[in-house]
Design brief:
This protein is an all-alpha fold. Among the domains are: 36 residues; 59 residues. The chain contains five helices and two strands; from the N terminus they run ββααααα. The protein has a two-stranded antiparallel ribbon. Helix 4 packs antiparallel against helix 5. It is elongated, with a radius of gyration of 46 Å.
């Protein structure tokens, strides 16, 4: 049986120091020793291991492609062997800057006209839904005189 470490206490009742079974002195302000961890790989060993893994992976892909190439269907082989035709945008006919600018102006003008029509329509709806317009519209429908028509046109637009 191993001897138990002795405990000493100060006048305030706090332990002064303790001795662990392995003979290391641990006091109240000293951290407890941590068990040793497994040794780590060095930086260069780790770098070499990662690099080797990447190279072996690339080599495996290359060997697999080399072994599969003879077994591919002929249609796939001819499609892979042909150079690419380029992007689909290259098939569009070349347009001059002037043409593109004219198209831009036409689109802008059409958009502006559409916005103007929407604004005019909303303003007209506001005028027709207003109380004075409704009043003079009813007056004109009840008594279609020239004076009522002028008032209706003035308030309803």
């Amino acid at each position: 049986m191993s001897p138990r470490p002795q405990r000493f206490s100060s006048a305030a009742g706090l332990p002064l120091s303790l001795q662990s079974p392995d003979g290391v002195s641990v006091g109240p302000n000293q951290p407890k020793p941590q068990p040793m961890s497994q040794p780590t790989l060095g930086f260069w060993k780790l770098t070499f291991a990662i690099t080797t893994g990447i190279w072996l992976g690339c080599l495996a892909v290359a060997v697999t492609a080399w072994l599969i190439w003879p077994n591919l269907p002929p249609a796939v082989v001819t499609r892979l062997a042909q150079p690419s035709a380029g992007t689909p945008a290259s098939h569009l006919p070349a347009r001059s800057n002037e043409e593109m600018f004219q198209q831009y102006l036409q689109r802008q003008q059409a958009t502006q006209e559409q916005q103007n029509r929407q604004i005019e329509k909303s303003e007209q709806e506001k005028r027709f839904s207003g109380a004075p317009c409704q009043f003079w519209l009813q007056q004109y429908q009840a008594n279609p005189t020239e004076g009522n028509q002028r008032k209706m046109d003035g308030y309803c637009g």
